Amino acid sequence: MTDATHKPFVRTQMLQPSAPPLREAGVVRWLRENLFSSWFNTILTLAGVAVIWLLVSSALPWWLNGVWTAGSLSECREIIAASAGEGASGACWAVVNERWNQFIFGFYPVGLWWRPTLAFALLFAAMGPVLFAGQKRAMLILLGSVAALVLVLVTLAASAVPNEVAKVTDAPFVWKLALALALLTLGAMIVLTVMGSGKLLWFTGLYPALCFWLLWGGPIWVPVGALFGFVLLAGVYAALVKRAGPGLAAGLGLIVALVWWLFLDVPVTVALNEAIPFGLTAVQSDQFGGFLLAITIGVTAITFSLPIGILLALGRQSDMLIVKTLCVGFIEFIRGVPLITLLFTASLLLQYFLPPGTNFDIILRVIILVTLFAAAYLAEVIRGGLAALPRGQYEAADALGLDYWQAQRFIILPQALKVSIPAIVSTFIGLFKDTTLVAFVGLMDPLKGVTQIVRADINWKGIYWEPYIFVGAIFFVICFGMSRYSMYLERKLKTDHR
Amino acid sequence: MAEAQKMQISDEVAIRIAGMNKWYGQFHVLRDIDMTVNRGERIVICGPSGSGKSTLIRCINRLEEHQQGQIVVDGTELTSDLKNIDKVRSEVGMVFQHFNLFPHLTILENCTLAPIWVRKVPKREAEETAMHFLQKVKIPEQAHKYPGQLSGGQQQRVAIARSLCMKPRIMLFDEPTSALDPEMIKEVLDTMIALAEEGMTMLCVTHEMGFAQAVANRVIFMDQGQIVEQNEPREFFNNPRSDRTKLFLSQILGH
Fold first, then answer.
1. How does pLDDT run across B137-173, given as a tens digit for each residue?
2. Domain span holding position A389
3. Which positions in chain B touch A497 (Cβ < 8 Å)?
């Protein structure tokens, strides 16, 4: 202690903020700090480098000697032996080159490839208004890319020569008409985006029916009939909501819609189709396969499991005993049973429970079960988000006079879902990868189903790594994309400035 | 205190509570509460922690349910009827200890949400009202920020503005300054005083005895879930009658 510290002291001038001291920068310093800071760290670094070297040196030749054009595995090996010497290892990507179409489309008729292709491209246009709500620039870039994608891919797919099975095509003008309509729709969406209109969501709402029609074909009246059920629901709701309140109006609307779907839909659509037959060539579910199948199941299940999961989570928190018990029972039952059990249920048992004579499509059954499975997990994830909200948020919403659904919609769910984004997207990624399990009920998933067929070919017998790496890479790209999107969304929604 | 006299108190009854009891499980939190609040009254409720003062004002907009007795707010009795509850809540504003702003909405959106969806006010009009009240609490320039970017005192003033946007006839304050730094308490109290001067009916749970002396026309002291003493502020502070009140005042004013 010096005297100075005890002297009375008055500051006459406040200190100005100054910049922090400059650290010496440079590669050497970085290396020293991060890799060689202590003898232990140095050993770890050297060991790590050795492991990486070992891995790379053993795998690199295999990748470098890859062969892309060959008719069979033995031809591959001959080419590798000729170019890299006897006994050298090498990848035989020729199998991917020759059979990629099966990995993508399964046994979907070649002449109709343009339909799933178009559906896939439009999927992004349909997701855009939801994924990039209010982001004009992102939407324009997305819609522009989709338009370009539609133009290129659909033309390519449609010009894939319809092979000997000429019967399984639509009339030749159909794809051109569809292409024109799709581009027109995308153009209209771009105009709407520029105008800043919220009407784009209409396309998102119509897309499931459109996608169904493109994929399975058949008379146009089937998707129109299904959509009409929703029109009825909305109509009844709008007519009654003033007098009966939102809950009752929605309930009655749902009953009317169910009556339509269960009893009236089929006879009406059949009659309409007889009167005005118009449609695309029908494709059976057993012709679906590969990523067409995985994406169909995955996207549908993801889309529908989120709202169901939200309702289950809210139901689980409900004060109403019956609602709560049903939700808890459902969630715990579904989570307590392996997905494969549910898939077997879908493929075998569901038929027994349904009224005799109904033939429920196998893909539809699988989608329903996968959706319910994911919904149960999501419900728990979202419940975690709900629990993370302080009670004060509920109280403030109540004190302002917001009713239950308004409070959920504007206050509670936006915050609870935001907290749960990482876990929700994890569930989605898990769900998408689980679609490969449909192999167990005889559907042709890309990983087991298609690969097995390819490897059963006499030309490719004995091939092992290449198809799996190919399929794995596509899965990785899709799942990594979802993961990055979730991080983007978290950044975009970060408003708490903590 | 001179201003306090200026503020008009009408004969019209705003809140009537009669024989009200509340239990948390076996615990008897509120016992035989009887009180009447006239329009224009400014009531400060004080008492030791756990005395049930917060619970009492939370019963007035049914954030807490009472099990016995009657609460009538603006002529509407609070029962389990949701319509009545929503009606009362839209007439009664509430300010919380921890502000409870909605962190995912901007200040302006915080203020316009309820008017738009509960009162069905057009968006533009709701925004004008919101800006008017934000002006009043002296932070119009923060309208497009998020709550997390504001100081505690600013957040609490936004919370007051948010309540006012619903054009309530009664305001409840639940320890509005307890979570604030001393420097920020004043700005919030000034806002509340301005509100009182306009004749708003106010019930305020607070330990700010200076505020009570300056603004309140009645102070209610609670202990163990019952009203122990009530009086006009000068009498209450200078001539407390019950021993419990004397002890409480000596502890709170003693230092």
1. 988 999 999 999 999 999 999 999 999 999 999 999 9
2. 286-498
3. 146, 148-149
